[in-house]
Amino acid sequence: MSLLEKIKTISSDLFEETRNNRQHLHANPELSFEEYETSAFVQSKLSAWGISYRSGVAGTGIEAIIEGKNPQKKVVALRGDMDALPITEENDKPYKSKNKGVMHACGHDVHTSSVLSTARILNELKGEFEGTVKIIFQPGEEKIPGGASLMIKDGILKNPIPNSILGQHVMPLIPVGKIGFRKGMYMASADEIYITVKGKGGHGAMPERNVDPVLIASHIIVALQQVVSRMASPKTPTVLSFGKVMANGATNVIPDKVEIEGTFRTLDEPWRAKAHEKMIKIGEGIAEAMGGSCEFEVRKGYPFLKNHPELTQRAIDAATGYMGKENVVDLDIWMAAEDFSYYSQEVDACFYRLGTRNEERNIVSGVHTPTFDIDESALSFSPGLMAWLAINELHS
């Protein structure tokens, strides 16, 4: 039996365990940087399998090391994130979240359980490949400054230094059984915007006696869109969205202030910096011209994510051999953000997508929604695929 067939067989044989691990994690989600029980669960599995690891990296993070033959020859890192989101789950499943207001709505339970089984596969076959695999179980992907940045500061990319890193993420837009790749620029940077518009509140029937921050805020929100429609180059994808506007007045009460929160995303670092300046100038200028004031804060988040072209092509070739050409699809640029981008700034990286959609079973909800779920059959092959990609890269 070839090494490829061995990996496929072990991955399939581990399906029930992988699924059980995923359902346990899904039922017991923990927020960013609070993944204490999740970390303990991962450590218990690694210990049971005899895999050496270092815990307490950036708080709850874990670094596991699997050495094959000639371990100094080459090092490949694999990453799985562990945190959940502050969302109340609406699915009616036996493994529904037990933690009210917390849910694995972005698939990190899938990533952790899948990478755990990948570690087990590699450990069982460590006598059949050369080099070292470093497996990263990462906290806090969903919250600035991002667990990846903190793990890097804590030395996760040292001792040993990886030549490359691979990451996997669920994709509910891709049918289960398919894998997606994109070479080069793939995901956007992400910044958080916090605006406080101040005026002078009072009776809604006497606006001439007030400085209406609601009206000022509405002008600012509309005007800021010209940063995207009139200032950004058509060659530079840019997104500006506001998801929270708080004006605590009433039908006949104009409040003293309005608070606005949003996100700014792009794929170009120089433009990103210029856009920050332009947005602040627009906001402050409009507020002043209308008699109010504006506190405009941009909290810089994750950088853009770029997949190393040659590494990604090797991964595509390996995935084609594992899944079949018809099951490897090309991805478009994705304006969402991921803190895996921090790794991509430091080392050759490939971040790919695991299809989890099944329309026949109505598994179609997007990530970050209260009804998100996956077709768990993806877990029958995802651990083996990542193991195969890692070994292929070690031998490249």
Kindly provide the name of the CATH class of the largest domain. Alpha Beta
- What letter string, H or E per element, gives the SSE order? HHHEEEHEHEEEEEHHEEEHEEHEHEH
How many alpha or pi helices? Answer: 11
Strand line-up in the sheet with most strands: 1-2-4-3-5-16-6-15
| Average residue-wise pLDDT | 98
Instruction: Report the strand count.
Output: 16
CATH topology of the largest domain: Aminopeptidase
Termini Cα gap: 21 Å
Assign a percent range to the helix content. 25-40%
- Determine the CATH superfamily of the largest domain: Zn peptidases
Strand share of the residues?
25-35%
Radius of gyration: 23 Å
Helix-and-strand structural type: alpha/beta
List the uncertain runs.
Answer: none
Largest sheet: 8 strands, mixed
Q: Please identify, by name, the CATH architecture of the largest domain.
A: 3-Layer(aba) Sandwich
Taken from the alpha-carbon principal axes, the silhouette is: elongated
Give the number of domains: 2
Q: What can be said about this structure in brief?
A:
This protein has 396 residues and is an alpha/beta fold.
